[in-house]
Amino acid sequence: MTDVLERAMLLSEALPNIQQYSGKTVVIKYGGAAMTSGSLRESVINDIILLSCVGLRVVLVHGGGPEINALLEAVGKQPEFVGGLRYTDRETMDLVQMALCGRTGKSLAALVTRRGGKAISLSGLDGGLFRAVKMKGEVDCGYVGKVTEIDPAPVNLALDGGYVPIVSSVAHGIDEDTAYNINADTAAAELAAAMAAEKLILLTDVPGILRDKNDPESLISEIKLSDIPALLKSGAVGKGMIPKIDCCVTALRKGVGRASILDGRAEHSVLVEILTHEGIGTMIVNG
Question: How far apart are alpha carbons 27 and 30 in whole angstroms?
Answer without folding.
Answer: 10
